């Protein structure tokens, strides 16, 4: 809420509706201490109350809470609970439901800020933390802005972030629960969750200190849960080839099952296909390209649903050899190939590619089957089984 700046004791309290006469001096002082540039910061007020004896804290809450707007009151309760002081002050009985548009919008901003903090773990410049601080200031979260400012200092910043990661896991868990219950919310939170997963795709968890890794792993687990929400399939036929794409709520392909009977050697790529490759590569890390899940020579111009950020060396060596094996089997043996490809881990940039395929002869008999799990990184090897 916003207060007009005036001089004298109790300037914040005097501008709460009906509060000037009702609040004690202690309540006025608590509000004054939590007011900066004329705005009340519920997180700062919660921090003050959390350090007071239980009886005094409850008395001040009983005085202050009825005069706060619903949003500030709810934020105060949330902040106190996060500090180990749950309260039964739950806001007016007719408070809007948690799934209201405004709350979902706030949750999307929360997820964006989390993504910026995660990006700040690997960003050697203060850009991510500076952007996060600006969002905090715009939302009236002075404590959050302060932590983001501290985070611009290496080492000290990482320690400050560590104190926030536990609450981040709760926020992401809330987003997943709401998305599971309501497809519309899943779609609305999808872009923010995608950016957060993208940030995680750049973080080498095994290289972080144990304390930070343990704080981040529950968040990654929940992000993987979100990737499985709203899963649906799309069928495609390209010439004599058929594909079943499995996609999550964010529209990202997480699995592709196909029967390949035909090879379109030298097929040209549309301008949309080239654009999609650039978009897929941009979601990745250094040395990534927009790699096809199933080679373009088998399923032409499918766009982003047939792509993921793929290490360039892996794309041009092991994965290409695998596709050459399929193409030679179809062209030289007149057979077909049944394939099942699953992208494992972070759906924004998969960690692994699990490939299963069967070689079918011209009479429809299965001749052989293979399974291989590739890491999405350089140094992968594939030994061709036929046509070496």
What's the structural blueprint in terms of helices and strands?
Blueprint (H helix, E strand, L loop, with lengths): L24 H9 L1 E2 L2 E2 L1 H9 L3 H11 L5 H13 L18 H22 L4 H12 L3 H10 L4 H26 L1 H19 L8 H18 L4 E7 L2 E7 L5 E8 L10 H12 L5 E5 L14 E5 H5 L1 H16 L2 E9 L7 E9 L5 E10 L13
Antiparallel strand pairs: 1-2, 3-4, 4-5, 5-8, 6-7, 8-9, 9-10
Helix pairs in contact: 1-3, 2-4, 5-6, 5-8, 5-9, 6-7, 7-8, 8-9, 8-10, 9-10
Organism: Ottowia testudinis
GO molecular function: endonuclease activity
Protein name: DNA/RNA non-specific endonuclease
Q: Can you describe this structure?
A:
Keywords: Endonuclease, Hydrolase, Nuclease. This protein is α+β, with helices and mostly antiparallel strands. It has three domains: 13-82, no CATH class; 101-227, no CATH class; 232-375, Extracellular Endonuclease, Chain A. 47% of the residues lie in helices and 16% in strands. The protein has 13 helices and ten strands. The strands form three sheets. It has a six-stranded antiparallel beta sheet, covered by helices on one side. A two-stranded antiparallel ribbon has the order 1-2. A two-stranded antiparallel sheet has the order 6-7. Strand 4 and strand 5 (253-260) form a beta hairpin. It is elongated, with a radius of gyration of 27 Å. The N and C termini lie far apart (72 Å). The model is unreliable at 1-15, 17-21, 90-99 and 124-160 (pLDDT under 50).
